[in-house]
Structures are given as C-alpha cells and as structure tokens.
Amino acid sequence: MPESRIDYLPLSMLNQLEYCPRRFWLMCVCGEMEVNAPVLEGTYQHQRVHTGGTTREGDTLVHRRVYLWSDRLRVAGFADVVEEREGVLIPVEYKHGRMGRWLNDHIQLCAQALCLEERTGRPVERGAIFYWKSRRRLWVEITPDLRARTEAAVARAFALLEDGKIPPPTEQWARCRDCSLEPVCLPREVQYLLSLEVEGR
Ligand code: SF4
After folding, report:
1. 16-40 pLDDT, tens per residue?
2. Domains and CATH numbers, the chain
3. Atom of ligand 1 nearest to the CA of 26
4. Nearest CA to ligand 1 atom 4
5. CB-ligand 1 contact for 23 (6 Å cutoff)
6. Residues 139/128, Cβ–Cβ less than 8 Å
7. pLDDT tens digit string along 140-167?
C-alpha cells in the first residue's frame, strides 16, 4: 500500500478532493496522473504563468508562480499569479475549462489567499480565476463561509490520509465522464465488486 504520511498538503490537492475524494487519493497518495488531451492542453496554457518572475502591467505588479505555504494549515504550493496593486494582493488561478461556479476551484483559490495572508500579514479579500475556454475572469470574494469551507476541506484531506484507505468511487457519475483518471480508477468495476461484498457473495 502506498505511504499516505504527508507533512504539507499540496494546494492543488484540495481542488481534487472537492471534485472527488477518490481522485484526491489516487493523485496524492498513489501519484497517478493521466495525460489526456484536455490535461495536455491545460499544461500548454499554463506555460506562461508557470514561468516565474515579476513584471509591471500599468499600475499592477504581476508576480508569476509564487510559492506559498501555511504552517497553521499545513498546506503548500504555487499560486499561478499574485497581482499587487496599491498594496492589495490578489491571487489569480488559471483554469483550463469554462467558467462556472466550481466550489473546488474556489477552495483552491481561498487556500492560496489564506497562505498569502499568513506569509505577508496582509488581508486578502478577493481573488480571481481565469477560465481559458471562456476567456473570462471570475472574481471570488474570500468570505468567512469560503474560508470555513476551505479549512474544513484541509481537515478532511488529513483525516482521509490518516484513515489510510482509498475512498470508494463517487456516486456522481457525471464527474467520472470528465475525469482523466477514469481508466486507472475503474469506478464502475470497483462499484460492482463493492456491491458483491455488501451482498456477501
Ligand atoms: S473516475 Fe470517478 S470515482 Fe474515479 S477518480 Fe475520477 S471522478 Fe472519482
């Protein structure tokens, strides 16, 4: 069985957890990563923001690929971009897909905001997600509710790792259709085997 002990949780894994706990486990513990066409496209789209450094765009400093962490939450990872305007910090996450109200994306962004606050001592009141397919930026307020959900997601992730068992497939089958790990996960086959166990066959 793969080792599930982890000191600092990668920020991006919070996104996976909210999408599907089994996907989180497969990626975080087993190191699984299927490179299908959408994943590859997303990688190419991220290439610019994944080149570090700071540039000035008008009155805004744009910091790219910023390493962040929180000792309190035990999470760490990169923000694609942190914009700085008149002392105000705004984390910006780039996503491959279309704009929607995806809680998993909001939680990843909020975790970046919490790290940024801990690192700088400055409040981060909002962030943004840029969706490539929609070519649009969605503003996300870092509300008390979103902060609480994000901290709950971190606690859930560590609880799952502590538990040491791979979660069952999600019952939200539509998610499996869009999941790059479907060929590794085999959700329907696993669900069938689990149903046999329940029936005692
Ligand atoms: S195929 Fe479905 S159950 Fe398996 S990891 Fe992906 S979303 Fe989760």
Report:
1. 999 999 999 999 999 887 655 555 5
2. 9-166 (3.90.320.10)
3. 5
4. 185
5. yes
6. yes
7. 999 999 999 999 999 999 999 999 999 9
